[in-house]
């Protein structure tokens, strides 16, 4: 077994540990590495980074970092951040809004940051909070996509997405190829007007619900991609993996999809040169741009994905 396969579960467990969060966020050099993946803490910093990315011909989706909130005030605070963000984004994007072409500006939401885990009425609070953000996004000419979190949230998340889509038909959602259920979800959700972001999946999931190991996950990703590309929706191919990207381009061509009928997506700070190369090839490429103070969980999942990032982090620790 590769060292990365051993480290990944430990890092993903640490991503959910408040004790590890207190330790890691206190290490001064952590900040340098975090800056590679996170575009600052304020709306102004996020909008500045987004403006540069849009200027290069790429699209953006902006995520206000935060997750697993069990505090109503914090959930409401997250909504306020999105509303501030969207009022700035409105000035960047109006022309793209109603042309039928892909919208260059999007925000991504985590329902667990909007109150999904509140003890009594989490589902209702998250739904209402997401509804407020979708309303503001519509006015700003931006799309909204709901992120996928761990498998215990999938049913609740997809049910909230179904409810929201009655008022906001362009609402996108994320499916994780590593979950056994996802091929069926892709079939259910690949109808006209749907926007599905397909990713491999970033959480620590048990073998009872998820494919384990890179080969099985990659195979599942390709099966899901086939379903979405031959469906009637708008597939959003979220991967840095050259094999997945090549397959996406082939499947798109085989299904007669033009450049406006699907898009590629990568995370901020990852494979920047490849992102620009794909733009030169006339592909639509959207950058997932996270910002905010609650970067710990997001950062640890990036370390878990790529041992080179962890080595870089450990080296900086030992050289201080
Ligand atoms: P991996 O299997 O991690 O990498 C495969 C190959 O890609 C590597 O071998 C290498 O060739 C190349 N590669 C990867 N990283 C780098 C790098 N830093 N530099 C150079 N080459 C690299 N997960 C969720 O669970 N929920 C979500 O809502 C979610 N949203 C996402 C949105 C976007 C836009 C993206 C891109 C990812 C999202 N993810 C989400 C994360 C996703 O699930 C994966 O954990 C993550 O993308 C890593 O998988 P991968 O497909 O890039 O391939």
Automatic annotation (TrEMBL):
<dbReference type="InterPro" id="IPR002872">
    <property type="entry name" value="Proline_DH_dom"/>
</dbReference>
<keyword id="KW-0560">Oxidoreductase</keyword>
<feature type="domain" description="Proline dehydrogenase">
    <location>
        <begin position="60"/>
        <end position="312"/>
    </location>
</feature>
<keyword id="KW-0285">Flavoprotein</keyword>
<protein>
    <recommendedName>
        <fullName>proline dehydrogenase</fullName>
        <ecNumber>1.5.5.2</ecNumber>
    </recommendedName>
</protein>
<dbReference type="InterPro" id="IPR029041">
    <property type="entry name" value="FAD-linked_oxidoreductase-like"/>
</dbReference>
<dbReference type="Pfam" id="PF01619">
    <property type="entry name" value="Pro_dh"/>
</dbReference>
<keyword id="KW-0642">Proline metabolism</keyword>
<comment type="pathway">
    <text>Amino-acid degradation; L-proline degradation into L-glutamate; L-glutamate from L-proline: step 1/2.</text>
</comment>
<keyword id="KW-0274">FAD</keyword>
<keyword id="KW-0547">Nucleotide-binding</keyword>
<dbReference type="InterPro" id="IPR008219">
    <property type="entry name" value="PRODH_bac_arc"/>
</dbReference>
<dbReference type="InterPro" id="IPR015659">
    <property type="entry name" value="Proline_oxidase"/>
</dbReference>
């Amino acid at each position: 077994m590769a060292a990365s396969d051993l480290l990944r579960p430990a890092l993903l467990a640490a991503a959910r540990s408040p004790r590890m969060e207190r330790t890691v966020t206190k290490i001064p050099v952590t900040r340098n590495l975090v800056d590679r993946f996170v575009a600052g803490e304020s709306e102004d910093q996020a909008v500045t980074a987004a403006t540069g990315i849009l200027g290069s011909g790429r699209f953006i989706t902006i995520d206000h970092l935060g997750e697993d909130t069990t505090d109503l005030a914090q959930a409401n605070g997250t909504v306020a951040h999105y509303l501030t963000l969207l009022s700035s984004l409105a000035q960047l994007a109006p022309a793209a809004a109603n042309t039928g072409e892909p919208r260059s500006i999007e925000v991504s939401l985590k329902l667990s940051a909007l109150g999904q885990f509140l003890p009594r009425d989490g589902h209702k609070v998250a739904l209402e909070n997401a509804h407020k953000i979708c309303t503001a996004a519509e006015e700003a000419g931006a799309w909204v996509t709901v992120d996928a979190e761990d498998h215990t949230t999938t049913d609740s998340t997809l049910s909230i997405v179904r409810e929201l889509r009655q008022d906001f038909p362009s609402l996108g959602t994320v499916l994780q190829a590593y979950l056994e259920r996802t091929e069926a979800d892709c079939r259910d959700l690949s109808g006209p007007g749907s926007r599905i972001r397909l990713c491999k999946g970033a959480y620590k999931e048990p073998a009872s619900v998820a494919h384990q190991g890179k080969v099985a996950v990659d195979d599942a990703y390709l099966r899901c991609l086939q379903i979405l590309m031959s469906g009637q929706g708008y597939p959003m191919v979220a991967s840095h993996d050259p094999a997945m990207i090549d397959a996406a381009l082939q499947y798109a061509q085989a299904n007669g999809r033009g450049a406006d009928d699907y898009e590629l997506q990568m995370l901020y700070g990852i494979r920047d040169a490849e992102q620009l190369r794909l733009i030169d090839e006339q592909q639509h490429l959207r950058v997932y741009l996270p910002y905010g103070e609650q970067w710990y969980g997001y950062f640890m999942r990036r370390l878990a994905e790529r041992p080179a990032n962890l080595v870089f982090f450990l080296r900086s620790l030992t050289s201080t």
